[in-house]
Amino acid sequence: MKKLPGAILAAISAASLAALMSCGGAKTPQEVNVYNWGEYIDESIFVDFEVETGITVNYTTFQTNEEMYAAMKLGGASYDLIIPSDYMVERMIDEGMLEKLDFGNIPNTELISPERLKPDYDPSGEYSVPYMWSTVGLIYNSAMIGEELTSWGALFNPEYAGQILMFDNPRDAFGIALKYLGYSLNTTSEAEIREAYELLAGQKPILQAYVMDKIFDKLESGEAALGPYYTGDYLTMKEINPDLRYALPEEGSNVFTDAMCVPKGAANKENAEKFINFMTSTDVCIANMDVTGYISPNEEAADLYSEGLDVEEIMVMFPSRDDLGRCEPFLNLPQETLDLYDALWAELKS
Q1: Measured between alpha carbons, how far is 332 from 350 in angstroms, rounded to an integer?
Q2: Residues 6 or more apart from 117 whose CB is under 8 A from it?
Q3: 304-309, long-range: CB < 8 A, 24+ apart
Q4: Taking a C-beta distance cutoff of 8 angstroms, is the pair 173, 200 a contact?
Q5: I need a labelling partner for 328 at 20 to 30 A (CA). Which of 58, 89, 163, 316 fits?
Q6: Is the dihedral of CA 70, 74, 79, 80 positive or negative?
Q7: Distance CA 123, CA 116 (A)
Q8: Cα separation of 294 and 137, whole Å?
Q9: DSSP secondary structure of 40-84
């Protein structure tokens, strides 16, 4: 992915310098404990935030929504800011696990596209601020795969045995199987979910591994030939391995939004809200897009950043209306369906 054009970098540098100069004298040491996905932020901006506000960022990462959810259940008050995906935000709202936000501390929300401020997963818009959005696609090594891939079916093809990676969490793995079978990601039909299970069980012997963040390293290094992964990471991986290719499968995929939330009982709620405000500013959103390859809901940032992209980067980062029409967000499912997923996943992994 191309790095930021000089004019934009200069604008960001000027904005950052202005923020640093306006910060004034010494502040009482404070902190904010942030829990986010791996490879999903420009960590250099933590210094700017600390100088601007006097608040130290303590940063920890997770690999799946389910891992994050379990950590919250076990003692989530140790975190002040979490960044779950849409369906998990909905679940945590339903279970009373999130604080309502004080938007007086987050004036930069006015920079976010209005259609993204009261999404289906948070219809009142009181519990979350969108962070990034994108899609899940099929990434493959063209030097190892001698054909163009356009379908999730490649992940179930014995021809590629030993070279296939699969998501190591039930919602994503079942979601891919369901889309390939022509079903919704959000089906509650036990018959359809069990059909997806049979497809995944048949895939297991030909897999190289079930993995999450390691998909990035294995595909980038050529250790594996194909696997599902997040669109933004593809653009970063391709900088190291130009043989990599990307496809949004013809059957459709998951379009996701990750959002910034404050867990119930967070010790530093106001600091978390200040961090959210910082993260939604245009200059920070542009810098973050440049490192992660994901799309900011800050429309000004997205428009400015797109000016420096080539044709492929535009097509991958900003899917067409037709492509997005084949995609679905994950929704929170009834508990009985979640229990079925857990039981079948445990059986699959045993």
Answers
A1: 26
A2: 109, 125, 129, 130
A3: 304/8, 305/4, 305/8, 307/5, 307/8, 308/2, 308/3, 308/4, 308/5, 308/8, 309/1, 309/2
A4: yes
A5: 163
A6: positive
A7: 10
A8: 13
A9: -S-TTHHHHHHHHHSEEEEEEEESSHHHHHHHHHHHGGG-SEE--
Supply the CATH classification number for the domain 135-254+323-349. 3.40.190.10
Pairwise CA distance, residues 238 & 232, whole Å: 10
Cα distance between residue 73 and residue 48, in whole Å: 32
Per-residue pLDDT, 115:
84
| Residue 80 DSSP one-character state | S
With 0-12 / 13-18 / 19 or more C-beta atoms within 10 angstroms meaning exposed / middle / buried, residue 191 is exposed
Find, among 188, 204, 203, 201, the residue nearest to 340 by Cα.
188
Strands 81-82 and 30-37 turn out to be parallel
The type of residue at 56 is T
Tokens for 322, please give them.
């037709």
Query: What's the Cα-to-Cα distance from 64 to each of 87, 164, 171, rounded to whole Å?
Result: 12, 20, 10
How many residues are present in the chain?
Answer: 350
Average pLDDT per consecutive 10 residues, the chain (350 residues; last block may be shorter): 47 45 50 94 95 96 94 84 97 97 97 90 96 96 96 98 97 97 97 98 98 94 96 90 96 97 96 98 95 93 93 90 94 95 96
DSSP secondary structure letter of residue 112: B
Give the pLDDT confidence score for residue 76 in this predicted structure: 59
Q: Which two tokens stand for residue 323?
A: 């492509």
Q: Which amino acid is at 168?
A: D
Q: What is the CA radius of gyration of the chain?
A: 20
Q: What is the DSSP letter of 298?
A: B
- Separation CA 262–CA 243 (nearest Å): 40
C-alpha span between 241 and 232 (Å, rounded): 15
In the chain, residues under CATH classification 3.40.190.10 are 6-133+256-315, 135-254+323-349
Q: Which CATH class is domain 6-133+256-315?
A: alpha beta
Q: How far is CA 120 from the centre of its chain?
A: 17
Question: Is the Cβ–Cβ distance between 273 and 106 less than 8 Å?
Answer: yes
From 204, 153, 201, 205, select the one nearest 181 (Cα to Cα).
153
Q: How many CA atoms lie within 13 A of 54 on its CB side?
A: 10
Sheet with 81-82: strands ordered across: 55-62, 30-37, 81-82
